[in-house]
Amino acid sequence: MASVEKEGIQKQIQQDWANREYIEIITGSIKKIADFLNSFDMSCRGRLASLNEKLTSLERRIEYLEAKVTKGETLN
C-alpha cells in the first residue's frame, strides 16, 4: 500500500513540475509580447511625433502663402 501511495505522490510531483515549466514558458512568452508591444508603441509615438512636426510646418507654410495671396503679394 505504501508503494502505491509513493507512486501517486511521485506522479503528483512530476505533474507539478510539468505545470511549473508550462507556466514559466507562458510567462516568458507574455513578457516577450509585452516587450514587443512597448517597443512598437514607442516607435509609433516617435514616428507620429515626427509626422506631426512636419504637418505643423506645412500648415504654417500654407497659412503664410495664403496670407501673401490674400494681400495680393507675389510669391517671389
UniProtKB/TrEMBL annotation:
The keyword Ligase does not apply. One of its GO terms (molecular function) is protein-containing complex binding. One of its GO terms (biological process) is actin filament organization. InterPro entries: BRICK1. One of its GO terms (cellular component) is cytoskeleton. The keyword Cytoplasm applies. Its main location: cytoplasm. Belongs to the BRK1 family. This is Protein BRICK1. The lineage of its organism: Eukaryota, Metazoa, Ecdysozoa, Arthropoda, Chelicerata.
